[in-house]
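Morning run. Coffee first, then this:
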Amino acid sequence: MAMDEIDFEIFGADMQYVEVELDPGEAAVGEAGMMMFMQDGIDMDTVFGDGSQQGGLFGKLMGAGKRLLTGESLFTTVFHNEGNGKRRVAFAAPYPGKIVPVHLSEIGGTLICQKDSFLCAAKGVSLGIALQRKLGAGLFGGEGFIMQKLEGSGWAFVHAGGTLVERTLQPGEVLRVDTGCVVAFQPTVDFDIKYVGKIKSAIFGGEGLFYATLRGPGKIWLQSLPLSRLASRLMMATSTTGSSSGSLLGAGALGGLGGLIGGDDN
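And here it is:
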Protein backbone atom coordinates (compact mmCIF):
# COMPACT_ATOMS: atom_id res chain seq x y z
CA MET A 1 0.00 0.00 0.00
CA ALA A 2 1.28 3.49 -0.85
CA MET A 3 2.64 5.47 2.09
CA ASP A 4 1.54 8.99 2.94
CA GLU A 5 4.70 11.14 3.21
CA ILE A 6 3.73 13.19 6.25
CA ASP A 7 5.50 16.11 7.92
CA PHE A 8 5.78 16.33 11.70
CA GLU A 9 7.11 18.31 14.68
CA ILE A 10 7.81 17.05 18.21
CA PHE A 11 7.14 19.35 21.19
CA GLY A 12 8.07 19.17 24.87
CA ALA A 13 10.97 17.81 26.88
CA ASP A 14 9.80 15.09 29.28
CA MET A 15 6.10 14.83 28.42
CA GLN A 16 6.24 15.05 24.64
CA TYR A 17 3.67 15.12 21.89
CA VAL A 18 4.02 14.99 18.12
CA GLU A 19 2.08 17.14 15.67
CA VAL A 20 1.59 15.44 12.30
CA GLU A 21 0.89 17.75 9.35
CA LEU A 22 -1.37 16.28 6.69
CA ASP A 23 -1.79 17.58 3.17
CA PRO A 24 -5.27 17.32 1.62
CA GLY A 25 -6.06 13.62 1.15
CA GLU A 26 -3.28 12.40 3.46
CA ALA A 27 -3.93 10.35 6.59
CA ALA A 28 -2.24 9.13 9.77
CA VAL A 29 -3.04 6.12 11.91
CA GLY A 30 -2.85 6.34 15.70
CA GLU A 31 -3.07 3.95 18.63
CA ALA A 32 -6.48 4.13 20.30
CA GLY A 33 -6.61 6.84 22.99
CA MET A 34 -3.39 8.64 21.98
CA MET A 35 -4.90 11.60 20.09
CA MET A 36 -4.34 14.96 21.81
CA PHE A 37 -6.05 17.39 19.41
CA MET A 38 -6.89 17.81 15.74
CA GLN A 39 -7.72 20.81 13.60
CA ASP A 40 -11.01 21.39 11.86
CA GLY A 41 -11.15 19.60 8.52
CA ILE A 42 -9.75 16.30 9.79
CA ASP A 43 -12.14 13.34 9.87
CA MET A 44 -11.61 10.51 12.34
CA ASP A 45 -12.49 6.88 11.56
CA THR A 46 -12.13 3.83 13.81
CA VAL A 47 -11.06 0.77 11.84
CA PHE A 48 -10.23 -2.90 12.39
CA GLY A 49 -6.48 -3.49 12.66
CA ASP A 50 -4.26 -0.74 11.29
CA GLY A 51 -6.28 0.32 8.26
CA SER A 52 -3.68 -0.95 5.78
CA GLN A 53 -5.05 -4.48 5.28
CA GLN A 54 -6.21 -5.53 1.84
CA GLY A 55 -8.35 -8.51 0.87
CA GLY A 56 -11.76 -7.49 2.17
CA LEU A 57 -13.23 -8.76 5.42
CA PHE A 58 -10.72 -11.61 5.82
CA GLY A 59 -7.76 -9.26 5.54
CA LYS A 60 -9.25 -6.88 8.08
CA LEU A 61 -9.95 -9.73 10.52
CA MET A 62 -6.36 -10.98 10.14
CA GLY A 63 -5.00 -7.50 10.86
CA ALA A 64 -7.22 -7.11 13.91
CA GLY A 65 -6.24 -10.58 15.14
CA LYS A 66 -2.54 -9.69 14.96
CA ARG A 67 -3.15 -6.62 17.13
CA LEU A 68 -5.11 -8.70 19.63
CA LEU A 69 -2.17 -11.11 19.96
CA THR A 70 0.14 -8.23 20.89
CA GLY A 71 -2.23 -7.16 23.67
CA GLU A 72 -3.40 -4.02 21.86
CA SER A 73 -6.93 -2.96 21.00
CA LEU A 74 -8.65 -4.56 18.00
CA PHE A 75 -9.11 -1.07 16.61
CA THR A 76 -6.93 1.84 15.54
CA THR A 77 -8.00 5.34 14.55
CA VAL A 78 -7.34 6.83 11.11
CA PHE A 79 -7.23 10.62 10.74
CA HIS A 80 -7.98 11.91 7.21
CA ASN A 81 -7.45 15.46 6.01
CA GLU A 82 -10.64 16.20 4.10
CA GLY A 83 -9.99 19.97 3.92
CA ASN A 84 -8.47 22.11 1.18
CA GLY A 85 -5.30 23.08 3.06
CA LYS A 86 -2.77 21.59 5.45
CA ARG A 87 -4.18 20.37 8.77
CA ARG A 88 -2.54 19.06 11.94
CA VAL A 89 -3.34 16.26 14.37
CA ALA A 90 -1.36 15.69 17.59
CA PHE A 91 -0.59 12.50 19.50
CA ALA A 92 0.62 12.57 23.12
CA ALA A 93 3.00 10.23 24.91
CA PRO A 94 1.25 8.19 27.66
CA TYR A 95 3.94 8.74 30.34
CA PRO A 96 7.23 10.68 30.76
CA GLY A 97 9.78 9.92 28.10
CA LYS A 98 10.75 10.59 24.49
CA ILE A 99 8.98 10.12 21.18
CA VAL A 100 11.17 8.35 18.63
CA PRO A 101 10.55 9.15 14.93
CA VAL A 102 11.72 6.36 12.62
CA HIS A 103 11.59 6.52 8.82
CA LEU A 104 11.19 2.85 7.99
CA SER A 105 12.74 3.11 4.53
CA GLU A 106 16.01 4.28 6.12
CA ILE A 107 16.35 1.15 8.30
CA GLY A 108 15.36 -1.50 5.76
CA GLY A 109 11.57 -1.21 6.00
CA THR A 110 11.01 -3.11 9.26
CA LEU A 111 11.20 -2.26 12.95
CA ILE A 112 10.67 -4.66 15.87
CA CYS A 113 9.37 -2.94 19.00
CA GLN A 114 7.81 -3.75 22.33
CA LYS A 115 4.07 -4.14 22.11
CA ASP A 116 3.04 -1.02 24.05
CA SER A 117 5.48 1.45 22.46
CA PHE A 118 3.66 2.26 19.19
CA LEU A 119 2.17 5.77 19.12
CA CYS A 120 1.23 6.66 15.52
CA ALA A 121 2.39 6.39 11.92
CA ALA A 122 1.71 7.51 8.37
CA LYS A 123 -1.19 5.63 6.86
CA GLY A 124 0.13 2.63 4.97
CA VAL A 125 2.54 1.47 7.68
CA SER A 126 1.55 -2.10 8.56
CA LEU A 127 1.30 -3.12 12.23
CA GLY A 128 2.02 -6.83 12.60
CA ILE A 129 3.52 -9.31 15.02
CA ALA A 130 7.03 -10.68 15.45
CA LEU A 131 7.29 -14.10 17.10
CA GLN A 132 10.37 -14.76 19.19
CA ARG A 133 12.05 -17.84 17.74
CA LYS A 134 14.05 -18.63 20.87
CA LEU A 135 12.36 -20.25 23.86
CA GLY A 136 14.38 -18.24 26.40
CA ALA A 137 13.58 -14.92 24.77
CA GLY A 138 9.92 -15.83 24.58
CA LEU A 139 9.51 -16.98 28.18
CA PHE A 140 11.70 -14.46 29.99
CA GLY A 141 12.12 -11.52 27.62
CA GLY A 142 9.62 -9.30 29.39
CA GLU A 143 7.49 -9.14 26.23
CA GLY A 144 6.59 -12.82 25.84
CA PHE A 145 6.80 -14.57 22.50
CA ILE A 146 5.13 -11.71 20.66
CA MET A 147 6.42 -8.22 19.85
CA GLN A 148 5.13 -5.66 17.36
CA LYS A 149 6.50 -5.45 13.83
CA LEU A 150 6.15 -2.18 11.90
CA GLU A 151 6.60 -2.50 8.14
CA GLY A 152 6.54 0.03 5.33
CA SER A 153 8.48 2.97 3.95
CA GLY A 154 6.99 5.92 5.85
CA TRP A 155 7.30 7.58 9.23
CA ALA A 156 6.44 5.66 12.41
CA PHE A 157 6.56 6.99 15.97
CA VAL A 158 7.26 4.93 19.08
CA HIS A 159 7.53 6.04 22.70
CA ALA A 160 10.42 5.36 25.11
CA GLY A 161 10.08 5.93 28.85
CA GLY A 162 12.56 8.20 30.64
CA THR A 163 15.76 8.96 28.73
CA LEU A 164 16.22 7.57 25.23
CA VAL A 165 19.39 5.82 24.08
CA GLU A 166 20.00 5.27 20.34
CA ARG A 167 22.94 3.07 19.45
CA THR A 168 24.21 1.27 16.36
CA LEU A 169 25.81 -2.09 17.10
CA GLN A 170 28.65 -3.26 14.89
CA PRO A 171 28.72 -6.84 13.54
CA GLY A 172 29.30 -9.18 16.48
CA GLU A 173 29.07 -6.39 19.08
CA VAL A 174 27.02 -7.46 22.11
CA LEU A 175 25.19 -5.28 24.62
CA ARG A 176 23.57 -6.72 27.75
CA VAL A 177 20.42 -4.84 28.75
CA ASP A 178 17.67 -5.08 31.34
CA THR A 179 14.81 -6.84 29.56
CA GLY A 180 12.33 -4.00 30.16
CA CYS A 181 14.67 -1.34 28.78
CA VAL A 182 14.55 -2.61 25.19
CA VAL A 183 12.26 -0.35 23.12
CA ALA A 184 12.97 -1.34 19.53
CA PHE A 185 15.60 -2.79 17.21
CA GLN A 186 16.20 -3.62 13.58
CA PRO A 187 15.49 -7.23 12.56
CA THR A 188 19.20 -7.70 11.79
CA VAL A 189 19.88 -7.51 15.54
CA ASP A 190 19.88 -10.87 17.33
CA PHE A 191 17.73 -10.68 20.49
CA ASP A 192 18.19 -13.32 23.20
CA ILE A 193 17.80 -13.79 26.95
CA LYS A 194 20.59 -14.93 29.28
CA TYR A 195 20.57 -16.11 32.89
CA VAL A 196 22.59 -13.87 35.21
CA GLY A 197 24.69 -16.89 36.16
CA LYS A 198 24.97 -16.44 39.92
CA ILE A 199 22.28 -17.41 42.42
CA LYS A 200 23.34 -14.70 44.89
CA SER A 201 23.19 -12.01 42.21
CA ALA A 202 19.84 -13.29 40.98
CA ILE A 203 18.24 -13.32 44.44
CA PHE A 204 19.79 -10.27 46.10
CA GLY A 205 20.98 -8.12 43.19
CA GLY A 206 17.58 -6.62 42.47
CA GLU A 207 18.10 -6.97 38.71
CA GLY A 208 16.09 -10.15 38.19
CA LEU A 209 17.08 -13.60 36.97
CA PHE A 210 17.63 -12.70 33.32
CA TYR A 211 18.93 -9.94 31.07
CA ALA A 212 18.62 -9.36 27.34
CA THR A 213 21.53 -9.65 24.93
CA LEU A 214 21.49 -7.65 21.71
CA ARG A 215 24.04 -8.68 19.10
CA GLY A 216 24.81 -6.53 16.07
CA PRO A 217 24.77 -5.48 13.37
CA GLY A 218 21.90 -3.03 13.58
CA LYS A 219 20.37 -0.08 15.38
CA ILE A 220 18.74 -0.35 18.80
CA TRP A 221 16.65 1.99 20.94
CA LEU A 222 16.69 1.72 24.75
CA GLN A 223 14.72 3.42 27.53
CA SER A 224 15.80 4.28 31.06
CA LEU A 225 12.28 4.04 32.55
CA PRO A 226 10.20 1.05 31.44
CA LEU A 227 6.49 1.32 32.19
CA SER A 228 6.66 -1.85 34.29
CA ARG A 229 9.34 -0.32 36.52
CA LEU A 230 7.39 2.93 36.89
CA ALA A 231 4.21 1.02 37.79
CA SER A 232 6.10 -1.13 40.32
CA ARG A 233 7.56 1.91 42.10
CA LEU A 234 4.16 3.62 42.19
CA MET A 235 2.58 0.51 43.69
CA MET A 236 5.33 0.32 46.32
CA ALA A 237 4.90 3.99 47.19
CA THR A 238 1.12 3.62 47.43
CA SER A 239 1.32 0.57 49.69
CA THR A 240 3.94 2.27 51.90
CA THR A 241 1.80 5.40 52.21
CA GLY A 242 -1.23 3.31 53.03
CA SER A 243 0.65 1.38 55.70
CA SER A 244 2.00 4.57 57.27
CA SER A 245 -1.44 6.15 57.35
CA GLY A 246 -2.87 2.99 58.84
CA SER A 247 -0.17 2.93 61.52
CA LEU A 248 -0.77 6.56 62.46
CA LEU A 249 -4.52 6.00 62.56
CA GLY A 250 -4.02 2.89 64.65
CA ALA A 251 -1.74 4.73 67.07
CA GLY A 252 -4.26 7.56 67.44
CA ALA A 253 -7.11 5.15 68.04
CA LEU A 254 -5.13 3.20 70.64
CA GLY A 255 -4.12 6.44 72.34
CA GLY A 256 -7.74 7.53 72.58
CA LEU A 257 -8.78 4.15 73.87
CA GLY A 258 -6.01 4.29 76.47
CA GLY A 259 -7.27 7.70 77.64
CA LEU A 260 -10.77 6.36 78.13
CA ILE A 261 -9.55 3.32 80.06
CA GLY A 262 -7.24 5.46 82.18
CA GLY A 263 -10.08 7.77 83.19
CA ASP A 264 -8.84 10.82 81.28
CA ASP A 265 -11.43 13.56 81.88
CA ASN A 266 -10.24 15.81 79.01
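Residues 7-228 form a domain with the Double-stranded beta-helix fold (CATH 3.60.160.10). Good start to the day.
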